[in-house]
Design a protein that fits this description.
The complex is a heterodimer of chains A (about 110) and B (about 625). Chain A is mainly α and about 110 residues long. Chain A has seven helices and no strands. Helices cover about 75% and strands about 0% of the residues of chain A. The chains are: A mainly alpha (about 110), B alpha+beta (about 625). Chain A: It holds the Pfam family EnY2.
């Protein structure tokens, strides 16, 4: 059987804009989480856990200290976020991270996708 | 990451909105935010967010991604993202289109200025959010949970613009634009004080010498001092039980034992009756070291004279006795409360009153009535010397679930604390009662509240909270129920579980108001000051008054904690009991004392020595010994 030449031809490369629209795996998961409402539930769970373990109070104290240092009138929310975020990330207990990870994994394994 | 920039104890006057906000408001007027209420999603109180379709994913209009913080432009509803440090599409949007500076945070419904990189605050905006939250909460309660998911989705569609955005455009103009601020707020700001940390007093060698020379040590015996039975003078167990609690109320005990009300030099006594002097007599008798039961006959007689309507040998309500005694000691103390000039004079439990009972027992309750139509909140403050708590209605399994369904929408997470315990054990808890006390309550149709803003009577929601915690918290559990329909009264014999250690933080106004409104500018100001003024909200149980028997005849017994040990004071008999006995008792009145106290800063000390109070060391009153409950000093 003779094959058509076009079959052997490599596929035409995607346009530049197509390439950019290709979402990463992380984004797909993020969107799935939002669509299913799971993200809301995860957020609620995380909120509870962080309050329970004292993370929120600690973070609040850090923000207050930072604000006081900078001067109340000279500070913006954006600055606080930039400065406190790394500390805040580091302060999240591993158990909380593990629990969240477990939940996300369970969600990905389930039929919700 | 969710961060809220909380302004630390600021006043609204301090806050200067940015020029962009001023421009926006100049453009659109006060109606600028009116349409917001169509775009908000019901959430737990204080956590508003922008509504979206069930499966809709809000994305940045520029990059199409759903990451970082997302802001919807207030002018054209275009969504832009904010992913620091360099991906700031909402900022680009604001820069490219003049007048599109302001945006609303999608997850938090808070105002953000994209050019200033900062959260901005506006009372009109906050009012719009709060008003709609109240409405939504109300709708949620009425509809129940079955159609909660799709309720209002048609409004949602109507308010939505075509291109992935949310229509926040200024299109609706209704309601009157005049703004009124709460009248009460200014008054409270004036009372801001700073507290100083408590430091324990270490006597200098000189002090030690003075103590040794000027005092005779008490004879040591096995019981802590002050424990003495009180004879029943004829149905006076109501009095004895409360007197025992008062005798061992740490700040009160320290006051009288440090000779601050000396009956021999009190001038009041010569001309008037003075319950303070009688208290002093009882304190002397109780702490004299003598252990044979004492007869508080003089006190009873004075109290009869003070409360003529309660005089006689009938059985009385211990709570009523407590209130009237506090009132009596206040009335005879010769102190004038600064508020006596006001219309509120004569109210028991004045927070500004300098008399000893009010310094110990009086707190301030806050009551907010929010109009469900416009979101206007009227706030009133009421002094109190105790907190009367309703028992939860009979808990039957089915009705409990039903109630949760109805209230779940409104109470959010707060409900869980008290009710989960109830659900399992079938018992009431003190925390449950407190949750009930502070939960938002919808006022009935026939008690509509006159809204100053709408200028008419509107349906409204009322919520109580505690503005100022007293040093000693007295809870009164309403066990005597009166039914007006049958005109009968009955006693509710239900066990109420109470903790030995109690944190009141969730019930103070700053917590309640914050959980209701989130960090909206509007309601924060006066509360922040109190929160910073009183860092301590931890209380400890030291006395329980219990009632056994029926409505018309029964017996009062009190349990007192001294030096970590509980004692049962049953009129003339005092016995040591175990903690379990106290835990199992049917509490009628519960007395809690603050665990740690702080000084009031001395610049606030305008206190002048009053007539009969021998104010030895003007500034910081007196310390109390470590004989049990608390170490600390009352200012």
């Amino acid at each position: 059987m003779r094959r058509r030449a076009s079959i052997n031809r490599p596929p035409t490369p995607d346009g530049e804009e197509d390439k950019e629209a290709e979402p990463t795996l992380q984004e797909i998961i993020n969107i799935k989480l939002i669509e299913s409402g799971e993200k809301e539930r995860l957020k609620e769970l995380l909120r509870e856990r962080l309050i329970e373990c004292g993370w929120r109070d600690e973070l609040k104290a850090q923000c207050r200290a930072f604000t006081r240092k900078k001067g109340r009138s000279k500070i913006t929310v954006d600055e606080i976020v930039r400065n406190i975020t790394p500390k805040g990330r580091a302060m999240v207990p591993d158990t909380v991270k593990a629990e969240l990870l477990q939940r996300i994994r369970a969600f990905l394994m389930s039929d919700n996708l | 990451m969710a961060f809220k920039s909380r302004r630390a104890g600021g006043d609204s006057e301090d806050y200067k909105p940015c020029q962009h906000l001023l421009d926006y408001k100049a453009n659109w007027g006060t109606q600028a935010f009116r349409v917001l209420h169509k775009c908000l999603k019901p959430g737990p109180p204080g956590r508003a967010s922008i509504k979206r379709e069930e499966k809709e994913v809000p994305r940045c209009a520029t990059c199409g991604k759903a990451q970082g913080r997302l802001y919807a432009c207030l002018t054209c509803a275009t969504i832009g993202c904010w992913v620091p440090p360099d991906q700031l599409h909402s900022r680009l949007h604001a820069q490219s289109k003049p007048g599109h500076d302001l945006a609303v945070d999608i997850d938090r419904a808070e105002l953000f200025c994209c050019l200033c990189n900062d959260q901005v605050y506006d009372a009109d905006f906050d009012r719009a959010v709060i008003g709609s939250q109240t409405l939504l909460a109300l709708a949620g309660r009425v509809n129940g949970s079955q159609n909660g998911a799709d309720s209002g989705s048609d409004i949602n569609k109507a308010g939505r613009s075509s291109k992935g955005g949310l229509s926040l455009k200024n299109s609706v103009a209704n309601g009157s634009g005049s703004d009124r601020r709460d009248v009460d707020e200014g008054r409270d700001r004036k009372r801001r004080r700073k507290g100083a940390e408590y430091r324990s007093w270490v006597p200098s060698p000189l002090d030690l010498l003075a103590i040794r020379q000027g005092s005779t040590p008490l004879v040591e015996d096995c019981l802590p001092s002050g424990l003495r039975g009180l004879n029943n003078l004829g149905n006076t167990c109501f009095m004895n039980s409360v007197l025992q609690a008062l005798l061992h109320t740490p700040p009160l005990r320290n006051y009288f034992l440090s000779d601050r009300h000396n009956r021999t030099i009190c001038q009041q006594r010569a001309t008037h009756l003075c319950l303070g002097c009688d208290m002093d007599t009882i304190f002397s008798a109780a702490f004299s070291g003598e252990r044979t039961p004492y007869s508080p006959a003089q006190f009873l007689y004075s109290w009869w004279r003070h409360a003529a309507n309660l005089a006689g040998y009938e059985q009385q309500d211990a709570h009523e006795f407590f209130i009237s005694t506090v009132d009596g000691i206040h009335a005879n103390s010769g102190t004038e409360s600064p508020r006596d000039r006001n219309a509120e004079s004569g109210r028991s439990g004045d927070v500004d009153c300098r008399c000893i009972v009010h310094r110990v027992f009086s707190g301030l309750l806050r009551s907010d009535v929010t109009c469900t139509v416009c979101g206007f909140t009227s706030t009133t403050y009421d002094p109190c010397v105790d907190i009367s708590l309703d028992l939860e209605p009979d808990i039957r399994p089915d009705s409990k679930i039903f109630m949760d369904c109805i209230m779940g929408n409104y109470d959010g997470g707060r409900l869980s604390r008290g009710s989960t315990a109830n659900g399992i054990t079938g018992n009431s808890t003190l925390l449950g009662c407190l949750d009930r006390f502070t939960r938002p309550e919808r006022l009935g149709v026939n008690e509509k509240f006159y809204c100053q803003r709408c200028q008419t009577r509107q349906e409204s929601i009322k919520q109580m909270s505690i503005r100022k915690l007293p040093l000693v918290l007295c809870f009164h559990i309403k066990r005597f129920e009166h039914s007006s329909t049958r005109n009968t009264s009955r006693k509710v014999d239900r066990y109420v579980q109470f903790p030995f250690s109690l944190d009141m933080a969730p019930y103070i106004s700053s917590s309640i108001v914050r959980s209701r409104h989130g960090n909206r500018l509007l309601f924060l100001e006066s509360e922040e000051t109190w929160a910073s003024h009183c860092p301590s909200t931890e209380f400890e149980l030291f006395a329980v008054v219990t009632h056994s028997g029926k409505l018309d005849s029964g017996h009062y017994v009190s349990f007192i904690r001294l030096a970590g040990q509980w004692y049962k004071c049953d009129d003339a008999w005092v016995t040591r009991v175990s903690e379990e006995v106290v835990r199992a008792c049917q509490g009628y009145m519960l007395y809690y004392v603050l665990k740690t106290l702080s000084y009031k800063s001395s610049d606030d000390n305008e206190e002048s020595p009053r007539g009969h109070e021998s104010e030895g060391n003007g500034n910081h009153g007196y310390t109390w010994s470590s004989s049990g409950v608390t170490n600390g000093t009352l200012s």
